[in-house]
Each structure stands twice: as structure tokens, then as C-alpha cells.
Amino acid sequence: MTDTVAEQETSPVSPTPPRASIVGKRRVGDTVFLGLSTTAAVSIMIILAGVAIFLILRGLPAITANWSEGDLAGYQNRNWSSFWEYVGPLLFGSIWAAFIAMIIGTPVAIGIALFISHYAPRRIAGALGYIVDLLAAVPSIVFGLWGIIVMRPLLLPVSQFLNEYLGWIPLFNGPVSTTGSTMFTAGVVLAVMILPIVTSITREIFLQTPRLHEEAALALGATRWEMIRLAVFPYARSGMVSATLLGLGRALGETMAIALILSPSLIYSVLLLTDGFNSQTIAANIALNFPIATDLQRSALIGTGLMLFVVSLAVNMFARYIIGATGPGAKGRKKGKRS
User: Is residue 195 within 8 Å of residue 109, measured between CB atoms?
Assistant: First the structure.
């Protein structure tokens, strides 16, 4: 017995095999996929940096130029003192139009997504989801023509109603447009244009809610709406924010629909119903004036595009912050920091 124990103690221990022999060699497919994915990630950063550098180099001459002389003097029938005075109304119009579109379109998009995912029968949900996705393929010029021909006369009675009964609110004050080419019409058209993006993403997020959470809420006596409010919305909060911000990016960059509906005015105005007192957007202003602009005027238009690029980047960074603060695991990260 003692000899056996002594032999076990003196016998050499077999060395641990190297990690490479356990894991094995990396497959060729894994190496190729790793290279492709890394190249794609790096290329995105390179393209983004290239766009920013292009906008800065081409827009800098107009940003630093003297707007009281040369091709920029009296540009677009206004005597601008600097580039910042010129880009201000355009930037305001872009943000204001996108904000109106989000106020109108986001609740409708979330409601459609909720109906498709939790209320509609399977056949109706499939058909409705296909129709919503099909809206994303409609060109913006078609939405612009639809806004001019259909929505402008259709919204005139609504504008008159809002002015008559809600005219004490500054948004609906002032003379009502007789043509319908107002910021209100533009906001409605933009709201329809962002519906496919917000609805599709939100619908997929709602469908990913754990089934056990929903069944547990229903088993405890919750109604369907209470189940959605307590189980679905908290789980999908970050996804809803992401979908909303993607829709905001579409509304900020929309060009032809706004160019067809709004008159090219460079003013600050929050009025929704008046004609001729609407702020133009940056994208629409570039589309309307770029073909007839001189070199320095094109530099000014590219400079306004740079401002829109900065705003879009800031919006996306803010969205990432909100998602990180409200998304899954945010509470656990906060507890970990406290501990």
C-alpha cells in the first residue's frame, strides 16, 4: 500500500497540453469572416471621416468669406453679414420640420407596430406589415407630389379649424394659407415618410419581448394593455428610442418633398398654418439652389450641409447615450458603479 502511494507521489505529472492543441487551428472561413467584418467596420469609419473632411474643405471658403461683397453679396435676395446668419434659418427650419414630423408620426408608428405585433390576427398582421414595409420603397418625389396634389387641399379645412378654435396658441395664429403650402402640410408628409422606418424596427422589438414575461403578466390578472405597459414597453424602450432617432435622421435629410411643398423662405417662424412664413430646410435649399450657384455659393451650400452633418451626428450620439442609460442592463451597470 505504501509502495503504491510512493510510486504515485514520485511519478511525473503529465504536462497540460498547450491551448492550441485544445482549441485547434482557426478555420479558413473564420479567418476570412474576421477579415471581412474588420474591413467593413474600418471602412465605415473611413467613409465617415472622408465625408466630414470633404464638407469641411469645400465649405470652409464660404464660412470664412466676407458676405458683404462678391458672389455672396445679396445671395438669395438677402444681405447676409456672415455665414452663420445665413445658415441659422435653414438649420432652424430643418429641425422644426423634423420635430413636427416626429410629434405626428411617432405615436402613429408605435400604434401600428403594437397592433401588428399584439392585436391583429396573423393574416392581417402579415399583410399590414408588408404594406408598411412597401412604403419605404416609395421615392421621396412621389411623396412630394402626393403632398401637393392630395394633402394640401385636404388639410385646408383642418388648418381653418385649428386657426378658428386654437388660434390663441402661437403655432396656429396668423392668417391661414389659401394654398396649403405650409409647415403643417410638410410635417404631415414627413410623418408619413418616417412611418416605415419607425414601425418596422419597433414591430421587431415588440416581437422579441420574452413570451414568459407576457404570460406571467396575464396569469397575474393583467389586461392586455396592462401586460403591454408593464412587460412589453419596458423591454422595448431602447429599441423604440433607436427607431425614433432613425426616423428623425430620415426627416432631417429629406429633400424633394419639402422642396416641392414649402416656399423657399429663409426666416425664423414657428407658425404652422400661414403661407409665405415658413422656414426652408437645409436639404431642400441645397437641392433648389445648387444647379444655379457659383463656386463660392456652392461652397456656402456645402457649408450648410456640414452643419446638417454635425446636427445628425449629435442626434445619433445623444441617442446612443439614451439607449445606454435606459436599455437592458442599465440598472445593473448603475448598481455595479455604486458598489
Answer: yes
Over residues 278-288, the pLDDT tens digits come to 888 999 999 88
Spatial contact of 77 and 223, defined as CB atoms under 8 Å apart: no
Give residue-wise pLDDT tens across range 73-126: 888 888 888 999 999 999 999 999 999 999 999 999 999 999 999 898 888 988
Give pTM, 2 decimals: 0.82
Tell me: domain 25-327, CATH 3.60.20.30, correct? no
Structural domain boundaries in the chain: 25-327
- SS3 letters for the chain? CHHHHHHHHHCCCCCCCCHHHHHCCCCHHHHHHHHHHHHHHHHHHHHHHHHHHHHHHHHHHHHCCCCCCHHHCCHHHCCCCCHHHHHHHHHHHHHHHHHHHHHHHHHHHHHHHHHHHHHCCHHHHHHHHHHHHHHCCCCHHHHHHHHHHHHHHHHHHHHHHHHHHCCCCHHHCCCCCCCCCCHHHHHHHHHHHHHHHHHHHHHHHHHCCCHHHHHHHHHCCCCHHHHHHHHHHHHCHHHHHHHHHHHHHHHHHCCHHHHHHCCCCCCCCCCCCCCCCCCCCHHHHHHHHHHHCCHHHHHHHHHHHHHHHHHHHHHHHHHHHHHHHHCCCHHHHHHHHHC
